[in-house]
Amino acid sequence: MGAFGDAGACISRDPELIKKIKVLRNYGSGRRYYNEVVGVNSRLDEMQAAFLSAKLPHLDRMNGERRRIACRYLEGIKNPQIILPYVEDYAVPVWHIFAIRCERRNELEKLLNEAGTGTNKHYPIPMHLQGAYADLGFKEGDFPLAELISATELSLPMYYGMTDEQINYVIDKINEFA
Fold first, then answer.
1. Which CATH superfamily is domain 58-176 in?
2. pLDDT single digits (tens) 91-100
3. pTM score over 0.70
C-alpha cells in the first residue's frame, strides 16, 4: 500500500513476520544498537503514516480494482509477441505492477509511449550486474534468466482509478503491435 511519495506499509496477521519486518525496517535491529541482520532505515514519518491510515480502510477495494484491471489485460492482450504473466491457481496477486515480456521490448515501449501510454521497466539492469553488488564478482551470463527478463520486461499502466477506456486503449495498442 503506497503512501504519498516513497513510503508504504506491510500488513500481516503473522506475528513472526511482523517481528521480522520491524527488525528489517530499523537497520536490522530489534533492540537499539544491536543489529541482528542487514536492514534499512525505513520508518515512516507522521505525514506518511497519516496517508496510509486514511487509505487502509479502502485497501480491499483498491486491490480488487487492480485485480480487475489485470484480468482485463490477461483476457484482452492477444498479441503472440507478448508473454503475459502466469498466475498459479492458488495465487491471488495484488498486481502492484503488471509486467509483460516482449523480445522487441524497446520498440513496443516506443510505440506505447508515442501513443500516450506510459510504461516502465522493472528492472532494466539485473541485480547481479548492479554496481552495488560488484564486489560479489558476478558477470554477464552468470544469471541468464535474470538477464533475459531484464531485457524483455515492460510494465503496463496499473493504478487504481484506470477507466475501461484507458484499459482498452492499452490493450488495443499492444494488440496492434506488429
1. Aspartate Aminotransferase, domain 1 (3.90.1150.10)
2. 999 999 999 9
3. yes
